[in-house]
Amino acid sequence: MSIKYNEKNFPYIDLGKGYIIYLEDEDYTDERWVLKAEQELNETPENQARALEQLRELLRGEKKLTVPLEDEKFLLKFLRPLAYDVQKAFDCIRHTFLMKKNYGKDYYEGRIKPSHIRHIYDSGMVTFLPMRDDDGCGICITQLGRKWNTSKISMYDVVALFRINIEASLMDPLVQLNGIRIIFDFDGISMSHVAQASPKHAMVSLQWIQKCCPLPLKSIHIVNNSMLFNVMFTIFKPFISKELRDKMYFHNRDWSSLTKTISPKCLPPAYGGTLDAPECEGQLLGDFMQLYDKHYEGECQTPARNRFSLLSQSPLTNVRVPFSFPTHHGGSAFWGHHIAALDAFGYDETNAN
Fold first, then answer.
1. pLDDT tens string 199-255
2. What angle do CA 52, 75, 177 make, to 5 degrees?
């Protein structure tokens, strides 16, 4: 298991057994996904061009918000997941950067690129499963119990982890189209974990997910949930909308329940599945993620007033993207595009109204 480079000089993790994690830089062209996008999102070249221009017009009217209006891929990561509803995409962009403006000091400073939360990846808390579900959804596991060492990883770090990972997932057109499924594993939860939770953390994280994030969360699965999890959940529950609550499933250790909503072939045996892919080592995933710090460094280099600035180019064939969604060899489940990071721009109070 190691990091290698393909013929285009893109890095990838060779997991063994034919499974890899790597980057792709192209929109989907497979007939299945093109047809699905047309049927479910009314995505055609003409409708896409029209929506892009309408969104640009709305953003031009938001004088204090500086965004890369000509970066088509940036705008599409809001439009496509929201089925080209221009007003919803505009509102989502506004909410995203108002959140950054209001909570940036606590939740952004010092936690805006993968190397800042390298210790989380090293811990093995995050696992990206190497196969998409039957409907094209990506699958991610986050372990919020035994592998979460609260003496080294704060709740602020965990919130940043979600933001950085979702920022990456939004770059993948297939994730924009099909969405993701998230598994939260609370095996080993203790009072030290419960003590990390607070109404402010709950409010900020859930407001960001529900108002700022266009990413289609197809389902959220809670496993190994104990009585202590119930205590923690009572802190978050008041901030969970009905729409999000309807996507949540509580399985505890009932793997037959989990495999009714996620194909067993995509899940490792520990979760009732048959996937034989080796699990990516945490430190290796950390090495891989850190290769793409340049994608996020626009935030580090901008003044406090959050003005947009062009990102530095990565030495890796000018790639500015964070990481891929894992896939089995020969597949097309990738993350990554030449696109500005969300944290690289925002509201500028010095602009005129």
1. 999 999 998 898 888 988 999 999 999 999 999 999 999 999 999 999 999 999 999
2. 95
What six digits make up the tokens of 135? 């409907």
- Cα separations (Å) of 28 from 78, 176, 312? 17, 11, 27
Beta strands at 327-328 and 346-347: parallel, antiparallel or unpaired = unpaired
Cα–Cα distance for residue pair 224/246, rounded to 1 Å: 19
Beta carbons within 8 Å of 62's beta carbon, 6+ residues apart: 94
Contact 137, 180 (CB under 8 A): yes
Cα gap 115→353, rounded to integer Å: 37
335-352 pLDDT, tens digit each: 333 445 555 455 454 554
Residue 339 is given by DSSP the state: -
pTM for this model (two decimals): 0.83
Q: State the Cα–Cα distance between residues 311 and 300, nearest whole angstrom.
A: 10
**21 and 280 Cβ atoms separated by less than 8 Å:** yes
Q: State both tokens at 235.
A: 């802190």
Q: Beta 19-22 vs 327-328: how paired, if at all?
A: antiparallel
Domains annotated on the chain, with CATH: 2-293 (3.40.525.10)
Nearest to 2 by CA among 12, 10, 131: 12
Q: How remote is the C-alpha of 308 from its chain's centroid?
A: 21
- Using CA of residue 317, residue 319, residue 322, residue 324, what is the dihedral sign? negative
